[in-house]
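@channel sequence for tomorrow's demo:
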Amino acid sequence: MIDDSIRPQLGVIGGLGPLASADFYFKLTRMTDALRDNEHVPAVILSVPQMPDRTEAILGNHDGPLAPLQAAVSTLDALGVACIAMPCNTAHHWYDQLAANSRAEIIHIGDAVVTEIRRSLGHGRVANLATRGTLVSGFYQNRIAAAGFDLCLPASKEFQERVDNAIALVKAGSIVDAAIETERALHLAQLAGADAALLGCTELSVVAASLSDTNGLIVIDSNAALARACLTRLGFGAQEARGLPTVSRLPGHDRLPWPAAQRAS
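structure tokens (generated this afternoon):
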């Protein structure tokens, strides 16, 4: 039994990966329209980095992460939270099973992202920078198409390789190199005709503020979208994220500006 004076309103299933959940909480805090401590969201983060790999499970057609995810939901339910956030896109492959057995509302990151796309883009083509597991799951394709936007998946093998590299680099703590790989993937998405690009893996959200050159391409941050959705659901005022942490480029890490890169492609 938890004391009502410290009861959280928001439960976060974190650790998937750790930097991604830290990024989510930072954005949740910086997006809250608050002037003092007690105007922020009472929250609890349950970090479970020992969770089986979500993409490996989806590609291997098994449900290894489901039982630990259900245990995490049950733990947060027992604390009396009003809603639950999972700052891991790929984990939403099991959303229906989790939501069906949760007392608290689980906010779907895909729904949050669609709301953010509508805020940023009237119409057009959206590319999704995501894990292979998220792409196979298909929940983004279904939601984005249902919202009236066209999907843009670059045919270039290099595109997904750049995305995979960026995700792995964030997990390893190499944020500068991850930002460079993400920019290269965004460049390929724009060459394929994308008007907007979704950072559909929360590891990529970690580098969102460090992207120095997007050539006018609209970039949707799934962690920021989820944070905004949580604030709205809980009745807190939301503002644009302020003072996001960036990682400066080091000598030798620069790449060609977009017009020059397009000529070199």
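heads up for whoever presents: The beta strands are 10-14, 43-47, 83-85, 105-106, 125-129, 150-152, 196-199, 218-221.
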